[in-house]
Structures are given as C-alpha cells and as structure tokens.
C-alpha cells in the first residue's frame, strides 16, 4: 500500500481484497472516507482503509488477531479524549501542540475532563493551595525518595482525607482531579504556592521559565491508551476512586518501558558527554544492540510532534543554552545515522537539563501532566458503567490429561 494519505479506488480495493464496487459500498456506509481527486476521480483515506482492513482481520481470525490488539493494535474501546491522526495529536479535536502554545494547563484539564476549557474556575476554584499537617509530615519522611515514589506515598494519605472522592459523577470527579493535581504539584514543588500547577512547580524548582513547564504539562496530558492510561482505566472500571486510578497509572508509569524511559535518555546523553562525540556513542549503542532511547515513535513515523514542539520552544526561549545546543547536536547525529527524530521523552529530559531542574523532575512533570488524562479516562469509564475484564486464552496443562 502507498504510504501517502490517500489511495486511488484501485489501490484501496486491492488492499482490502474487494472489488471497486464493494469499496463504494464501504464509502456509502461511512467506513471509508473519500474526497475529490484529479478530474472526476475520487481519492480515499489510507488510514480508513488500514483501519477497516484490521477490523476485518480480527473478525476472520479473532484468536490470532487478539495477540496484537493490545500491543499497538486495533482500538479496543471508545474514547472521546485523544486522537492520533496523520502525525498529529488532538485533545477533544483540538491540536495538542496549538493548545500548548496558547492555553493554560488548567484550561486543557477542563477541556479533557468536561469538554469545555472555559470551566476552569468551576473545576479548580475549590482546590486547596497547601498541604494538611498530615501530608506535610508524610512528605518530610519520604524526602529521600524520587518524586514518582513520593506521589505514591502521599496520594493514599490525601485520599484518606478526601471523602468527596467517592462521588463519581463527572463534575465531582473533575474537582477531585483538581485536588489531586494540586497535591502532586505542591509536593513536587516543595509547597511553594502559585496561581497554577506550572507556576507552583516553577517556584518550587526555581525554574526560570514557567511557560516551558506549562507547555510540557499540556503535551503530556494524554496519549490515547498508553499502558499507564489503560491501567488507570481498568481501575476506574472497578469504580475505584480517582486517587486509586491515578495510583494505578503511576505504578505503570514507573516501568522502564514507559516513564522509566526518561532515565534511559539521561543515561544516553551522559554517554555522549563522556564520549565527547555523539556519532561514536550512537555507534557503540547500535553495535551492542541497545538502541537509542528518546528517538523514534511507532505512532509517529515522521516524528513525534510533542518532542519537536518542546525542542522548538527550548530553542526559542533559551537561545543561549548550552544544554539545548548539545541536545540539538545529538538529535542531528541520530537523524543522520538512524533517520529518527526526538520523542516526548527526549524533550522532557532536555527541558529538565536546560532549566537545571532537580533529579526526577522530568518524570514528575510527565506524571503531573498525564494525571489529567488518567482522570479524563476515569470519567469516561465511570459513565460507561462497564467492567474491563477480558478472558485469557489458556495454554497450560489440560485438567485431567493424565487420567
């Protein structure tokens, strides 16, 4: 199949293994979108053809197809929050990059949770600006832990003080989400108050540019059913409270194939610094079969727009930064050798380096941002009333096989 955005009628029909007449029937049923092409001919959306082909494969052989469904496979549940399409990320139909340039993090949270970025005051107006004495005491006892681990200790304590968290109506969950966010930002930011989450983090981390943090939080907010989001959604399907939903997300985020990947990016950049030559460090990794973390994303063949935007805004707002210049050199070397571009993970690590944020700040930024998505998916799941409980295909010993 052509890798472009559109296919001719003949190409689309051949890919689906059907006649052109059947393709027209799919179009009339809304399964494949068509647009005017050259002359009187029409062209057909390649992404629709691919999606329809995957669905038909699932129906023909569900036992075989299910193996790939949960691993970068076909959609497994409905959501109105995020869409990844043609190399772009959208929240409720709005381009996430454009939102990161004009909106506040709280506005994006209101948009994702209630579908209206104008409901900020309704959602965040009652969120406390500080920690209770119990939370402060707990925070002092776990100061040696990473920010992610601190969140996992503090949130259960905060949950025990928040009886309103058991109210699972959409507006109530949104307000609980605001309280969770405020707690996380305050804990990560050493309880320095601010007008918003980004400002709280900026003051606590003594970061010079709050707009950079705001943009990063927005770009982290959601990404369809990432593993942490799926874990959070499973917890919500059992009607666990929003605190438990966020804790489920944090547990998955800790894994080295998710949020832990940021640590791998940091290790890679340190290797480049020690080698003094990006090409040499990259070559050593490739010879070992280690790969280069922070580059290339299966959902964005032409490059992760989130990573690209963070690097763009870093260049714009910190033009004299040595950390940014170094990262740009590394990115150029990876592009030349591997043809891959920076991901969100790379952008967050470079941001933390450029702003000289404390250890663990990059993944803390990721966690605070993604909490918006976890709470948004919880709201959807609570409303559906369904329990996520798939079956396993048993491959063990057959009962009674010995007799």
Radius of gyration: 23 Å
**Main sheet properties:** 3 strands, antiparallel
Distance between the termini: 52 Å
Instruction: Write the H/E string, N to C.
Output: EHHEEHHEEEHHHHHHHHHHHHHHHH
Look at the helices and sheets and give the structural class.
mainly alpha
- Counted beta strands: 6
| Strand percent estimate | under 5%
Mean pLDDT: 90
Shape: globular
How many H/I helical runs? 20
User: Taking strands numbered 1, 2, ... along the chain, how are they ordered across the largest sheet?
Assistant: 1-3-2
Low-confidence residue ranges: none
Helix content: 55-70%
Notes on the protein architecture:
Strand 2 (34-36) and strand 3 form a beta hairpin. It is globular, with a radius of gyration of 23 Å. With 403 residues, the chain is mostly helical. The model has no long low-confidence stretch (mean pLDDT 90). The strands form two sheets. It has a three-stranded antiparallel β-sheet. Strands 4-5-6 form a three-stranded antiparallel β-sheet. The chain is 59% helix and 5% strand. It is built from 20 helices and six strands. The N and C termini lie far apart (52 Å).
Question: What's a quick, concise take on this entry?
Answer:
The chain has 403 residues and is mainly alpha-helical.
